[in-house]
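Hi, here's the filled form for the chain we discussed.

Project: internal
Contact: R.S.
Residues: 224
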Amino acid sequence: MFKILIIEDDKGIREGLSELLLTSNYVPLVLDMNNISVEKIQELSPDLILLDINLPGINGRDFVREIRKILSTPVIMVTSRNTEMDEALAISYGADDFIAKPYNPTILLLRIAAILRRSNLTSEIKTYRNLQIDFKKGTISSTKSNSKAIELTKNELLIFRVLLYNQERIVSRNELMTELWDNCEYINDNALTVNISRLRDKLEKLGETSTIETRKGLGYILAK
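And the returned structure, exactly as it came back:
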């Protein structure tokens, strides 16, 4: 599960965020407000940071800059003000997104999910069975042999990522189509079938068979 670091001095808000994240299948992390540093963040290795811009004794804007000098971890800045200027400044300081208090839980979760999708598509290396998937390079390779890595198209990469991150459940065709459309890949139903077939073929070339299972009328699931 993804780890979300909460840097917030208000205990009530901090606890509310922790509960929200926990019930949404994230792992909430909290820093000791008396011991906040980039080094501490590195130790915790979060997947995303929720940072209050107005912390006592700390300039949130400067702190984002300090984080950016060392880490590429996505940051959502949280503020009590909600103006276009505040949003523009937050982004210019290095934040990935901006949300105002009192935050809408649904909107916050959607923004967290969107940022994690983008960051994991571009930075993570994942494993599946005896395969290694490099989402940054767009390649897939075998960990058992010295065979050359196979390139995946953008569509194949997006499809495989969705199936991999939802390995415990069936993913509907509509979900896959929505993911592709959200990434400006406007394909139709037949094209999705072709992309699934090509992805299966590439996995088989690397020695992995029976990977993407079709559940008639429901969608697809990535076999363990």
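Let me know if anything looks off before we file it.
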